[in-house]
Write a structure and sequence with these properties.
It is built from two helices and six strands, in the order ββααββββ. With 151 residues, the protein is an alpha+beta fold.
Length: 151
């Protein structure tokens, strides 16, 4: 399959609406990619309709690198426009188990626990070193991990 090249849509619309009695901010992004139909066709050309046994049902299709870049830029611009945050730049990554899902930091920020839905494990990551220390085998499809400080 050839790589698809996408760009940010020239009419991208980023706005914040405040909803509910609490006026909670809701970030809305419309027109993110320039050719969404091409993205759908690309995904449909190499998708799996049957759900793997260890995951929820639904389409599984690889995202082209250009989509990931448009998404990163669009989300960075949207978050910056809505919340006045600095540029969201990827500082690195850590290889963990399959289909990482829920993330939980320890209160001191030194460790990160990653629920790996596809490998039925929780990875313990050293945040400063950006290194997986170990994988803890757990039950099927771990979710909603938390950390607690005990006296």
């Amino acid at each position: 399959m050839s790589e698809l090249t996408l760009e940010t849509h020239p009419n991208i619309d980023i706005r914040v609406e405040h909803v509910g009695a609490e006026r909670i901010p809701l970030l809305i992004i419309d027109n993110l990619v320039d050719r969404p139909d091409d993205l759908v066709a690309y995904a449909a050309s190499d998708c799996t309709l049957a759900a793997p046994a260890d995951m929820y049902p639904g389409l599984r299709a690889p995202a082209p690198q250009s989509y990931l870049e448009v998404l990163r830029k669009g989300l960075t611009d949207a978050v910056n426009a809505a919340y006045s945050l600095p540029d969201l730049k990827l500082n690195g990554n850590v290889k963990v188990g399959h289909h990482p899902d829920w993330l939980t930091f320890t209160p001191d920020g030194k460790r990160l626990y990653v629920a790996n839905a596809g490998s039925n494990s929780v990875s313990v990551v050293d945040v400063a070193a950006r290194k997986e220390l170990l994988q803890i085998p757990v039950g099927q499809t771990p979710k909603r991990n938390i950390t607690a400080v005990l006296p």
